[in-house]
Amino acid sequence: MTSVAASSAVPRGLSRLFGLQRIRVTLIAAGLLGLLLSLPSETATYVVVLRALIVGFAAMLMFGVFEQWPRTLRRVPRSVLQLIAIVVVIPLAAMLAYTLTTHDYEQFTDDQKRAMAAGFGMLVFTGILFAPWIAVGAMLKQRDTFAREQALAFELERSQLERSALDARLRLLQAQVEPHFLFNTLANVQALVDAGSPQASRVLASLIAYLRAAVPRMHESSTRLDQELRLVRAYLDVMQMRMPDRLQFSLRVDPAAQALPCPPMTVLTLVENAVRHGIDPSEDGGRIDIDVMVRGERCIIRVSDTGVGLQASSDGLGTGLSTLRERLRLAYGGSAQLRLLEVEPRGVCAELDLPMPS
Prior knowledge:
This protein is of the alpha+beta class. 65% of the residues lie in helices and 12% in strands. The protein has eleven helices and seven strands. The protein has helices spanning 2-9, 14-17, 20-38, 45-68, 78-101, 110-194, 200-218, 225-242, 266-279, 309-312, 320-332, and strands at 223-224, 247-253, 261-262, 286-295, 298-305, 337-342, 348-355. It has a five-stranded mixed sheet with strand order 2-4-5-7-6, with helices on one face. Strand 4 and strand 5 (298-305) form a beta hairpin. Helix 6 packs antiparallel against helix 11 (320-332). 26% of the residues are buried.
């Protein structure tokens, strides 16, 4: 990860040596320096500016070359090597600039030669005075950019690790739900077999067909609400075969909510709790109504039963709902809510409030 951040902050090759930002800074700094030096000089302004540009680009070239070469340094810090290279190249570049822009030097008068020597000295002095500070500013900016990109890379890696941890925890919670649901359902089938019910074979066949569809989805991190409700209907069909005179149910679903993504076993957990802790303990049985409504940017899922109610249930509502709350927190953060309400004259309403996808 560090190497990736470094390569993105400091690109290699010609793109690093002749970057647009560097060329822009060099043009501005050397141009201003040339204009400043041309004020007391009798030489044409464009000539003085051209000389300053030659010196500026030579310093930029040395800065970039020793930024990449040599690849490894043991004793001298790279920044020190860059500054030394800039200081050394400025007099050489000034000599090259004067050579390229000066003609018929032998015909110059002594005063002109002294003025040219003074201009040469001023160009070298000014270049050595300002160029290293500009280089230091570039180094500090590079380090700041590298630090920011490295911090972003660390933050990205931390977010990915947190996401992986949340996914692992969510799968662990789902693994806790799976045997809880399967063992409860198999216990219902066993009760029919022990009672010698002629419906045992039909219930077992329905259960096998249900599990073939349900078990693969238990390992998925997300499913659609319409798929979840199909499993809920299949589960209630199995339960109704077990106690046909004691369980009635209905599903009313807003078509706009069918494509809503949700964690697997979400609604099924509420329905199973209603059967196990509401309808099953009641001598008269009861009814389960499942209503799915879309209200603006929220989806409301209600699972109401007319069973024994919260207070009459001796063993509470089990671990299913507490596990479901944790799964919802991991999947939605604080944007999903699960509420339990008493129903008069008896029963419980579990209300699930989920955000609709934007």
